[in-house]
Design a protein that fits this description.
The chain is an alpha+beta fold. It is built from 20 helices and 38 strands. It catalyses: tRNA(Phe) + L-phenylalanine + ATP = L-phenylalanyl-tRNA(Phe) + AMP + diphosphate + H(+).
């Protein structure tokens, strides 16, 4: 929600600049996304002027050359293209140096050979309206040279608020004013609906029927005659523009203004176009169609609700009106509707139709029925003031005013126990009263009556304690460890996951956090076909399924960085992946009969691209990311967890053929390792990318949490180098495993240090290290072990000693 600061100060002056107010609101639970300026800047260059002379431009039929007084004794020549400019007018002037709403800085210019030292302003050129047909003509008693900002709201700070779903009352200027009053203690002016010019009772000639009271708890309507449609005054248009609304005409602007001020959406019907003078709130019929105000034909079904008259549907209830009864320039009678609708039902209709409006966004969060008359009263005041209308006697009010308010006991002892500090009872009462709660003394605390606009949010004693805490100051609460035997220690699994993350950070990786939702299109890009969980209520089509791998979000993060000039990127992510059935096993009979929750598993993934380390004078061309670099990082991670593993050839479709592997832990599949397929990286505009992804449920149970140590020995190592010819389809890992199995207890380490391929065979050279803890070994002692190794390689791998 956009909140113009000058509109807020109509009801409460926060007494602080916008940035400090934003911080204060954020600390009390109202998130401010950003603060920005609406309108123009360099305000010293915007002044009131008076047109002294107006002459036709010598070389342009549509341009005028004006002499404009801009201060005592100062006259500027300005070339103007507006058709309504005339001598004697008081106007707004932008002088050279002015900064316009689009950021353009105004300069001196020549138009068709005539110098122009400024601009005579139209409404849209200072963002207080959308009219560009002519210049603004101001009150004639204004003095030339007066700063224009003293006369018109041409610039204002705007707070972009992120209102949480439980606080629809803050989707209004007065609702936020109430919060500012509570947060700062500054005086709050009476509610704008405090004085009602209307009267109760039926309206002659108007009939309203509500067939579904559960969907429409309250429906109010008033009839206005002798309405004159025209433009709204500048003060109203300026407020709408700053709040992000486009002015249309005075009646439509009144409905938008009242909605933004009170939070209650309204709709204006041209009553002469309401067939039979009767409106009916009912369920739609399957296949029923209507043309909405956005010039789109909507097809409805029986789960939706509409308002109709004698000629059929005229409005989609709570979402958007229809073209057939919209207010037009010829309208003279207006029926103003302010109703309350069931939020969840309306939200489902909005989603089905793909139609979300300012009104539906408020109703779906749960407005109070009482707010209907608040909006109706404000609209009545403005209709009488701005349209010259006559209010017909009576107010239709079906279902009002609303449920009885709830009273909740707030115990002083409970406040102290939950917050960990004592807040004086008088301060608790003052805070709640500023939030418009009713407060009465009770024996052990306060009896608090919840206002209608907080009915759905504050239902328990702890909710009242939260209200007290956030306004008293969450930052002032003491930091304590929870009692009741709770432990603040990490679980063994959390410690292991943190150890793995630390190993990756130590290897130069940065952590990324991606969405758990993804686009169905991502599976095609990654060439995978895993059972994905489809969301019933997705935020958008691009976020409509749950991820089955971290690879997609990691690739998006890598692309985001490389697109911004980061050539060498190392990222890791730890997060959940989801499958629509228990992954890797057949569902049980009970699972097959029901709809089980998704199979959620914690994964750890890492990707690297570019150079492994920065270039230097000693190494101008450092190595780049490849399979072996990724394997080295994997070894660092699993080494930190003390998890033994092996790798075998893999065939994942998203990996490069011949540079793909599966990671085995205790003989079970635990993830993939390798370089990504060029077809996959091309989809993300990336070069060579390598990485791995581990299923932590298959890894962490095998981690050694309590390592065993052995004494250091001073006896030397005996090294033996052996080279074996083995078939080309055998791997180095298989050779190492066979050598370790045959080497006996004295063999401490085996490493491959050379490879050579020739005529369908591969030569692998391995270095064996033998050591005893109690003596120096001799060649005679290790000779039998070496012979066992040679025989084992020959029998198990069909290998032979080279040379």
């Amino acid at each position: 929600m956009r909140l113009p600061l000058f509109w807020l100060t109509d009801y409460v002056d926060p007494g602080m600049e916008a940035s400090k107010l934003a911080s204060r609101l954020a600390m009390t639970g109202t998130e401010v996304d950003r603060v920005h300026t609406h309108g123009v800047s360099a305000l010293e260059n915007f002044v009131v002027g008076r047109v002294l002379e107006r002459e036709q431009h010598p070389d342009a039929d549509r341009l005028s050359v004006c002499q404009v007084a801009i201060g005592e004794g100062d006259v500027a020549t300005i070339v103007c293209g507006a058709p309504n400019v005339a001598a004697g007018q008081t106007v707004g002037v932008a002088l050279p140096g002015s900064v316009m709403p689009d950021g353009t800085k105004l300069k001196k210019a020549k138009l068709r050979g005539v110098p122009s030292n400024g601009m005579i302003l139209a409404e849209d050129e200072v963002s207080i309206g959308s009219d560009h047909a002519g210049i603004m003509v101001l009150d004639e008693d204004l003095v030339p040279g007066t700063p224009l900002a003293d006369v018109l709201p041409i610039a204002t700070d705007v707070l972009e608020l992120e209102i949480t779903p439980n606080r629809p009352d803050c989707l209004s200027v007065y609702g936020v004013a109430r919060e500012v009053h509570a947060a700062t203690g500054q005086p709050l002016k009476p509610a704008p609906w405090a004085e009602d010019p209307g009267t109760p009772g039926p309206i002659e000639g108007v009939t309203i029927e509500v067939q579904d009271p559960e969907f429409c708890p309250r429906f109010t309507a008033r009839l206005f005659e002798d309405v004159k449609i025209g433009p709204s005054p500048r003060w109203l248009k300026a407020r709408l523009m700053a709040a992000g609304q486009r002015p249309i005409n005075n009646v439509v602007d009144i409905t938008n203004y009242a909605m933004l001020l009170t939070g209650q959406p309204l709709h204006a019907f041209d009553f002469d176009l309401v067939a039979g003078g009767k409106l009916v709130v009912r369920r739609a019929k399957d296949g029923e169609k209507m043309l909405t105000l956005d010039d789109a034909e909507r097809t409805l079904d029986s789960s939706m609700h509409l308002i109709d008259d004698g000629d059929g549907p005229t409005s989609i209830a709570g979402i958007m009106g229809g073209q057939r009864s919209e207010v037009q320039p010829t309208t003279t009678r207006v029926l103003m509707e302010a109703a309350n609708w069931n939020g969840p039902t309306l939200q489902r209709t909005s989603q089905k139709l793909g139609l979300r409006t300012e009104a539906s966004g408020r109703f779906e969060k749960g407005l109070a029925p009482e707010q209907a008359m608040e909006g109706q009263i404000v609209a009545t005041q403005l209709m009488l003031e701005l349209t010259g209308a006559r209010l017909v006697e009576g107010t239709i009010d079906i279902g009002g005013p609303g449920p009885e308010p709830q009273t909740i006991r707030l115990r002083d002892e409970k406040v102290t126990r939950l917050l960990g500090t004592e807040i004086p009872l008088g301060e608790q009462a003052e805070i709640l009263e500023r939030l418009d709660f009713g407060v009465h003394d009770a024996g052990d605390g306060l009896d608090v009556t919840v206002p209608a606009f907080r009915r759905n949010d504050v239902t328990r004693e702890v909710d009242l304690i939260e209200e007290v805490a956030r306004l008293w100051g969450l930052e002032k609460l003491p930091a304590t460890i929870p009692g009741h035997g709770m432990s603040a220690r990490l679980t063994p699994e959390q410690r292991l996951r943190r150890r793995a993350a630390d190993a990756l950070v130590g290897a130069g990786f940065s952590e990324a956090i991606g969405w758990s939702f993804q686009s169905p299109e991502l599976a095609r890009k990654l060439r995978i076909d895993l059972p994905a969980v489809k969301l019933r209520n997705p935020l958008s089509e691009d976020l409509s399924v749950m991820r089955t791998t971290l690879l997609g979000s990691l690739l998006n993060s890598v692309r985001h960085n490389t697109a911004r000039g980061a050539e060498d990127v190392k990222l890791f992510e730890e997060g959940s992946v989801y499958f629509d059935r228990p992954h890797g096993r057949t569902p049980t009979a009970a699972e097959a009969r029901s709809t089980p929750l998704p199979d959620e598993r914690m994964h750890l993934g890492a990707l690297l691209t570019g150079k492994l380390r920065p270039a230097s004078w000693g190494e101008p061309n450092p190595p780049t990311a490849d399979f072996f670099a990724a394997k080295g990082v994997l070894e660092a991670v699993l080494g930190a967890l003390r998890v033994p593993f092996t790798v075998v050839r893999g065939s994942d479709p998203f990996l490069h053929p011949g540079r793909a592997a599966r990671v085995l832990v205790n003989g079970e599949d635990a993830g993939w390792l390798g370089e990504l397929h060029p077809g996959v990286t091309e989809e993300f505009d990336l070069g060579r990318v390598a990485g791995f992804e581990l299923d932590l449920a298959a890894v962490l149970p095998h981690a050694v949490t309590t390592p065993l140590y052995e004494d250091m020995t001073s006896f030397p190592v005996i090294r033996q180098d052996l080279a074996f010819w083995i078939p080309a389809d055998r791997t180095a890992a298989e050779l190492v495993e066979v050598v370790k199995g045959a080497g006996g207890k004295l063999l401490r380490d085996v490493r491959v240090f050379d490879v050579y391929a020739h005529e369908g065979r591969t030569s692998l050279a391995v270095r064996l290290e033998f050591r005893a803890t109690d003596r120096t070994l001799t060649d005679e002692e290790i000779a039998p072990q070496r012979e066992k190794v040679v025989k084992a390689v020959a029998s198990k791998l069909e290998g032979e000693l080279r040379g």
